Amino acid sequence: MVNLKRPEALAAMREAGKIVAEVLALLEEHLRPGITTAELDRLAEDWIRRRGATPSFLGYPPDSPRPFPASICASVNEELVHGIPGDRVLEEGDLITVDVGAFYHGYHGDAARTYAVGAISQDARRLLAVTKGALEAGIAQSRVGKRLGDVSSAVQRHIESQGFYLTHHYSGHGIGANLHEAPQVLNYGHAGHGIPLQSGMTFCIEPMVLVGTSRTRVLSDHWTVVSADGSLTAHFEDTVAIMDGTPEIFTRLK
Ligand code: MG
Q: How many angstroms separate the alpha carbon of residue 173 from the centre of ligand 1?
């Protein structure tokens, strides 16, 4: 866990988060039918390096036989998470999830957004609103006096009350000097259970939502996770710290 009482640690976590937020804004600006996910990856990597950081996901996890080969995850439509950028061309009506991590002065920031490419269906718009709402519901519980299960339960209730599905296979996580640290931040759970939340904790809340099923599978590239029924998916994530008892979102521009 990061010691945010060390001013240099707090400053680095905030800056890592800010770089991630800048990349998300940059990618959103460039989204249009005709752009490839590899072009988005190049834009992201260039910005991260220009800011003196390195992409957290490139080569992750180290010492693995199949480390992630790009700087961002780019997941289209039925792809839920961990899509590998490539020559896929975005089309009008697609949903594109970009997940971005930056490592700056020893600390990570990590966030994801699902964006619409051009005009999308009303169902797709509702999916985006519910997934973003689930993230906001989790953040609202991220305060002293609450427990981790309050965060998880708020995310779950927001998703399931709207008739959408979540997966039990992927979750949020603590973050700091390591991209993934304890505690695991599940997208389902029981209010009033789990560890008590304390000032100085930093973690990623990341609801992943599916329209038609809770089942997922991994493609033969060993990374891309898709909905088992091919239905649309969305994913929103922010890096959050509990500061003086209340949530501060590191991965949004002020
Ligand atoms: Mg994450």
A: 6
Q: pLDDT tens across 201-250, in order?
A: 999 999 999 999 999 999 999 999 999 999 999 999 999 999 999 999 99
Report d(CA 224, CA 227) in Å as an integer: 10
248 CA to centre of ligand 1 in angstroms: 17
Q: How far apart are the C-alpha atoms of 47 and 161, rounded to whole Å?
A: 39
Q: How far is CA 180 from CA 172, 174, 202, in A?
A: 9, 6, 11
- pLDDT tens, residue by residue, 77-117: 999 999 999 999 999 999 999 999 999 999 999 999 999 99
**165 in a structural domain:** yes
| Residues whose beta carbons lie less than 5 angstroms from ion ligand 1 | 110, 204
Ligand 1: centre distance to CA 237 (Å): 7
Of 42, 69, 44, the C-alpha closest to 58 is 69
Instruction: Assess if residue 69 is contained within a domain.
Output: yes
| Domain hosting residue 27, numbered range | 7-249
CA 220 – ligand 1 centroid, Å: 22
Domain count for the chain, please give it. 1
Ligand 1 centroid, distance to 161 Cα (angstroms): 24
pLDDT digits (tens, 9 = 90+) for 27-67: 999 999 999 999 999 999 999 999 999 999 999 999 999 99
Q: What is the pTM of this model?
A: 0.97
For residue 121, the CA-to-ligand 1 centroid distance in Å is 27
235 in a structural domain: yes
